[in-house]
Amino acid sequence: MMKSTGIVRKVDELGRVVIPIELRRTLGIGEKDALEIYVDGERIMLKKYEPACIFCGNAENVTYFKGKIVCNDCVSEMPVPAAK
Questions:
Q1: pLDDT digits (tens, 9 = 90+) for 37-72
Q2: Residue 4 maps to a domain
Q3: What's the structural domain count of the chain?
Q4: Which of 11, 55, 56, 78 is the most buried (most CB within 10 A)?
Q5: Is 61 inside any structural domain?
Q6: Enclosing domain of residue 27
């Protein structure tokens, strides 16, 4: 459920919008953090980006495997390739 904050910001000439520090602190968004952008009808939603497993979507205990993000649980379920 969305809650109105009463905060209004203008878009600058480069298309940027400043997110107030109080909101960033509340949501744990720091400088240089990546945000995901979602569109729902006429709404634009921002969410702090968390790398997640490509198989199950889990964002905890993830690692990179051949350039893809995979969680430790899915890594442990991967079959071991047969020896040639």
A1: 999 999 999 999 988 999 999 999 999 988 999 999
A2: no
A3: 2
A4: 55
A5: yes
A6: 9-49
